Amino acid sequence: MIDIKENFSLKKFNTFGFDIQCRYFSTFSNETELKEILLLQKKLNIPLMVIGGGSNLLFKNDFNGFVIQPTNKNIEIKNETNEYVELRVGAGENWDEFVEYCVNNNWGGIENLSLIPGFVGTCPIQNIGAYGVEVKDVILLVETFDIETFSTHSFTNADCHFGYRDSIFKHDLKGKHIITHVSFKLNKKVDFILDYGHLKTELLKYKIIDLKNIRQAVIDIRNSKLPKPEDTGNAGSFFKNPVVKNELAEQLKQQYPDIPIYVQNAKESKIPAGWLIEKAGWKGRNIGNAGVHSKQALVLINLGNATGAEVLHLAKEIQNSVKNQFGIELEMEVNVV
Ligand code: EPU
Questions:
Q1: I want to staple 290 with a disulfide (CB 3.0 to 4.6 A). Which of 56, 183, 259, 314 is the partner?
Q2: pLDDT, average across residues 328-332
């Protein structure tokens, strides 16, 4: 049974905590409910938006359309050997609860992705990543529902065209398919990824390196740097870390010897946007009700009653000043609606 709400506040459904409204809102837990909602939405002839945890969204205004959210949460074991387990998970499962469940079962592969806000169904869209792991490393299949034809589809890992915070769901399939399930292959054998500097340092506090301790270390690092959306509205990293030509990276290194540079290949390097924003003097600064987090300059925050427009204005100012100082264009990571 679908329960449709009209003129519904999305304040609790976007981690920036913007108090905006949508015309209609409904959850769905299976294909029948999804079809029912889509038929109604087509009849009303208004735009559709699917949200998960709302952790990567910036609403500029009220949304005069139909917002829908998956609530199917089942975790099914599809295949299991002594070495690995394959799981099919409902799109409505909370990402971090899924990570915790896997860690408790001693299934490895996503422990570095602990505490990332959002839903399982949205993790493939921007290929969530942290501490040396991206979710593409463990995704087997993404199942979708086509909004036009009502047919179901299965995308293999290769079909998803995963890249850094990127996938086919941000491009060719944007607004066309709804993700209903994601399947993962997780490890039963010890295969930890501990190359990321901060994680290595944090783990020095532990005598044993196991999945639970890695998860705890990641949680502690995140809690020390990233604001909790319940306390301070934010959407995690606001910008992507820019990838620049090696010549520019070398030139900047001469000027700023402390600049962190992660060489990607013979031609390109990645530079932390947080460093650029801090160096440009923005860390901890506010414009109106929008601010730059004082512990991680890559995170823009809602200081209380900010609007999406105010946060966007701050973002544009930051982009201009980083462009002027370093010649680098910062690309937004959040989805602007
Ligand atoms: N830095 C600064 N000042 C800052 C922030 C960062 O100088 O205010 C520099 C430091 O040199 C630091 C380096 O940037 O060593 C990297 O910082 P950090 O480890 O915090 O990671 P990040 O590159 O800023 C990325 C992801 C995060 C992810 C972390 C950890 C992107 C856009 N962001 O941030 O993802 O948690 O690495 O792996 O790639 C998210 O996507 O929402 C997110 C939080």
A1: 314
A2: 98
Q: State the closest ligand 1 atom to the C-alpha of 279, by its place in the atom list counted from 1.
A: 7
The position carrying tokens 């925050």 is: 301
Please state, in angstroms and rounded to a whole number, the distance separating the CA atoms of residues 47 and 288.
31
Nearest CA to ligand 1 atom 23: 272
pLDDT tens digit sequence for 197-237: 899 999 999 999 999 999 999 999 999 999 999 999 999 99
Kindly report, residue by residue over 114-154, the tens digit of the pLDDT. 999 999 999 999 999 999 999 999 999 999 999 999 999 99
Pick the residue whose CA is nearest to atom 15 on ligand 1. Answer: 260
Domains and CATH numbers, the chain: 5-70 (3.30.43.10), 75-201 (3.30.465.10), 233-336 (3.90.78.10)
Residues annotated as catalytic are 165, 237, 333
pLDDT band for position 1 (50/70/90)?
confident
Residue 323 has pLDDT above 90, yes or no: yes
Beta-strand (E) ranges in the chain?
Answer: 5-9, 21-28, 48-50, 57-58, 63-70, 75-80, 84-90, 129-130, 133-134, 139-146, 152-156, 177-187, 233-237, 243-245, 262-263, 268-270, 286-287, 290-292, 299-302, 335-336
Lining ligand 1 with CB less than 6 A are 130-131, 198, 225, 236-237, 240-241, 260, 272, 274-275, 278, 283, 296-298, 333
Strand pairing category for 63-70 and 48-50: parallel
242 in Cβ contact with 326 (< 8 Å): no
184-205: burial string, b at 16+ Cβ within 10 Å, e else: bbbbbeeebeeebeebeebbee
- Residue 112 to residue 198: CA distance in whole angstroms: 12
Q: Which among 111, 298, 330 is the best mutation to test ligand 1's pocket, defined by most ligand atoms within 8 Å of the CB?
A: 298
Going from the Cα of 24 to the center of ligand 1, the distance in angstroms, rounded, reads 36
